[in-house]
């Protein structure tokens, strides 16, 4: 596992990152400044305690901050110089036009997430290698994200997780993680992230209830009972599958554990191609029933192996439970698959993301998710690109199998 | 679920077999041919009744819908149907009276025909479970059939229900044997657990072309048709071309023929967002990998692939894979054994090739342009429906 940065020194390029070229470190430092200094989601997002902590951190930022557009454009130029597959994509799409004519980042091509399965995408030497779970045809189909700047990864988690997931919770709440730790899943980006969240924001009573054989039901139940008895709000971190497992354990035991009011749940990962006897609505209803955590305290995360940053629903701030918001160093666009032009709000298109956190690989990514943009910002997931699984005269029986339901739209691909 | 659907199922179970056994082959064949002819005639009352909804549901162009129906229906008409009835007569009569359940897919219109004809010939009642995405064609066809031969109204029925939400589903799964279903592997596995030994699976599959020499322009035009029919949604649709000839030349030629079809006799239907997205991902991934791509997403794309076989996301996207020899091609295809349905092969291929293809599980081998037009005795996935019924 990579060495942990400290809360006060998360800047990439300073702790644990490889020596980078002047160009790389200059750009990286400016991105770090941007991530540190900008308001992540909106003006009223932080609890008082977290505001104080992060304000102190922001005080380290330089007075002049680049604009997102300028940093994005520079990042693309930097990556076009260093990432051969990106240069090839640029060439194939530019049809004779020079890079100089691409004056705005949105005019540049985005790299399909599937290219993380087929090509090495490195703009700088990798310090961490993250792999997706590879649900299709074995290991050769797993996405690989060569991450050059894990400290930047930690920084974006530190900046975006608290306003999305800790609102209304006490400082350093106790957390129960149903995500394997990095010691069990060393190439999982979700494990990397959750380990860091536990280290940075978790209380002393935090625990992980996932072992090498999956959910550890008894320890999980004991932890929940203790949390309920203590009466202090807690946070549960889970993939949808792990949450389903936990609820099944409680259901089979006939047990309900009412977590203290104000407790919250961080949920990610969808069902990752595994058909289960549940839907998301069902999962939320069971969560309310068994844990007394209502849907408006369930934060959905959208993240994936191929990205550094995460989008979140802003339910804890009173937001729409299905509307994802990206942090200030990220941009989300919904585009027409044929023209790659942005579609009007409400129309379905492909989700395209620009993540400055991906400065060490490729920052502009075309996902496999279908989404609708919303007029006030943010996006809703509405489905996935076809072709992930072979069909061919076979679109029917899925409808029939009564113990299987349509999978909810995947919240990224982060799971272990 | 409506009580009418429950009644239909009860009728099928109690009276269907007796009703259909009272009819001789000639009467059944006549009713079949009349109903099928009406289905294939775009000016018929049947087609006027359903075409508008069918075009939307299937996302095919008007010529594309007609071509897709012709592909399935034309080989089952007239003398072909008579041959099926004759073949059924030659088999031992079945004592089974309970209805079969056929779970139909939505991606190719008219697939009910493939099971309906052998079921008629074997006097087996059938409940067709239509996809909620395409609930139009089969009920309308069965209505026409029953108009021609009223007794068939109590032997064949179509129903639509949302999976898992209907007591009819439970009743149908309990009452029917066999259960024929098209679906992906997890869905079929789940269904298999529920119907225990009564499931006949039509799992996911795709087709390919194997070119042991440079194809002529006529052969490439025919191959383009194998790709474009049904907008590449069928299991006999060509997804991959393996060639020992110059791959770039093949790709350019095929892309040209796909474009000509798109602009001419077989325009594509409206793009489905999920498929269009998948095509975009594949195209841009090819760009990042430096692969040659020919054509356009709107008219058909051909990529010169490296390494391994991968099925297409559809929408007339084909991968051309250069191979040093046919033997090498067979080995390249081997990981997909069990999911390979048909192979288009050029004339003059080596004598050993059909056997090698059959060993991969390929159920149909035909020249380019004929792959999709499977005859009445084609065993989809190797399954003999006369035997099943």
Strand content of chain B: 5-15%
Element pattern of chain A in H and E: HHHHEHEEHEHEEEHEHEHEEEEEEEH
* Mean pLDDT over the full residue set of chain A: 83
* Low-pLDDT segments of chain A: 1-19, 388-416
DSSP E strands of chain A, number: 16
Write down the overall mean pLDDT of chain B: 92
Description:
The complex is a heterodimer of chains A (416) and B (389). Helix content of chain A is 31%, strand content 17%. By secondary structure, chain A is of the alpha/beta class. In chain A, α9 crosses α10 (280-291). The radius of gyration of chain A is 21 Å and the shape is globular. Chain B has 389 residues and is α/β, with parallel strands linked by helices. Helix content of chain B is 46%, strand content 15%. Chain B has a seven-stranded mixed β-sheet, with helices on both faces. Chain B has a five-stranded parallel β-sheet with strand order 3-2-1-4-5, sandwiched between helices. The radius of gyration of chain B is 21 Å and the shape is globular. Classes of the chains: A alpha/beta (416), B alpha/beta (389). At the A-B interface, α4, β1, β14, β15 and α11 of A face α9 and α12 of B.
Q: What brief labels describe this structure?
A:
heterodimer; A: 416 residues; alpha/beta; five-stranded mixed beta sheet; 16 strands; 31% helix; 17% strand; disordered N terminus; disordered C terminus; B: 389 residues; seven-stranded mixed beta sheet; five-stranded parallel beta sheet; 15% strand; globular
